[in-house]
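Feature request, filed as a ticket because there's no other form

It would be nice if the structure record came with a short human-readable summary line next to the tokens. Right now we just get the raw output. Example of a typical job, pasted below so the devs can see what we mean:
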Amino acid sequence: MSCAGQRRHPGRQWPVLLFVLMLGAVTARPAAGGEGPVTVAAAASLHGVMTRLVAGHEARGEGPVTLVFGASGQLAQQITNGAPYDVFLSANRAWVERLMRGDHVRPGTVTPFAAGRLVLLLATHAELENAPALADGAVLARLRGDAFRHIALANPAHAPYGVAARQALQRAGLWEALGDKLVYGENVRQAQQFVESGNADAGLVALSLLGQPHGVWREVDHRLYAPVEHTYAIARDAPHPAAAAAFTRMLATPAAARILESGGLRPLPGGS
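Raw output as currently delivered:
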């Protein structure tokens, strides 16, 4: 998703609050036989659903999976630099296509599998009372108020949900007005953590992350931002190509579609 021609506020940086997520791995127990573990680099917004998908995948005897979470753009850069990932699951198609143009993924494996949804998460309930929808941007406009000192979003430079958040604020006419309040997380999960820890008063984050959020949320009207199209591909030099192919086939199953739906994503025909 191109960011060309759009002004980007520098936002505030809070190094002491950075969470070790981008390179933090969740590693499954080794399985007997097979070529695994297959290593899957996944957008931070997929943390909850991917953990559940991997549990089912391993329960069926498909072999171990190592998950690495981070911002899509940062993971794509790691693949460009030779990171030994087998599968890349981006929060948008643009990063996968960029890798395809650079011959870093296998073109025939590029597949959109789920559409994401952007939500406004607040640390307190009062500001969302009697505000069931954001279709006209009225609730977003409340972010101008003094109650909101810090508003978190993922960095639009490399996080698709950050791009979506910026678009929503721009189309609501708030991007310039809120510039000094914006706080950027390295990825959308960190932006959510800023809100849940009380270090931000509100955040524009992924619905797929809100399993048990500390706060309340409302979905942002999808007309305020371009579609967030989660897309996967197998790396060109995947160390475990057969295991990678088995993993991507799992994403196209009805069972995977149910997990994606229950996790706040809409399965797409290309993937399921």
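Something like this underneath would help us a lot:
Confidence is low (pLDDT under 50) at residues 1-33.
DSSP finds eight helices and twelve strands in the chain.
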